[in-house]
Write a structure and sequence with these properties.
This protein is mainly beta. The chain contains two helices and 14 strands. It is globular.
């Protein structure tokens, strides 16, 4: 993932999902089956995804107090909440053609976007251009070698395009 200024999205030493100081070292996430798949309507299942850190098995991007971080699935007191917090609906062409937006499954109408302080969070949808810019992503290095429930899952890097 890359921010508006071209800075790479990385997982910090405190496991927060943040923008780095430059374009180097983007963290690669693997799209996997939606962790909260059983709570999603059949119509949404093909677009529901979870993102696992490609370098740490079973560590997932999730939101906690609205900010994104990477946490291990085995270190939670509330597994159902963890599964909801780490599940997102992937929308194509929502704000811009050839771009994706990621909506929180358990906080509908809140999308992943970059804050001015560099942290990524889920934020209520707002119909203004600045929001559209901060919540739109491009998918790069998308490997289509495997499929699951009608959606292609594999290693991806997502890049904000401005």
């Amino acid at each position: 993932m890359y921010g508006r200024t071209g800075r790479a999205v990385q997982v910090s030493s405190s496991d927060e999902v943040v923008l780095s100081a430059d374009v180097q070292g983007a963290t690669t996430f693997q799209l996997v089956e939606c962790r909260a798949r059983d709570t999603v309507s059949e119509a949404l299942r093909p677009r529901c995804v979870s993102m696992m850190d490609a370098n740490r098995t079973d560590w997932y991007v999730r939101h906690r107090d609205y900010y994104l971080r990477v946490d291990p699935e085995y270190n939670t007191d509330d597994r159902p909440l963890f599964e909801l917090d780490s599940s997102f609906i992937m929308h194509s062409d929502t704000f811009y053609a050839d771009h994706y937006a990621l909506e929180s499954l358990n906080h509908r109408n809140l999308y992943i976007m970059t804050h001015d302080d560099g942290r990524l969070a889920i934020v209520q949808r707002n119909n203004i251009a600045d929001y559209y810019d901060a919540a739109s992503f491009r998918v790069y290095d998308y490997n289509t070698s495997s499929t699951f429930f009608g959606f292609v899952y594999d290693t991806v890097q997502i890049c904000r395009q401005f």
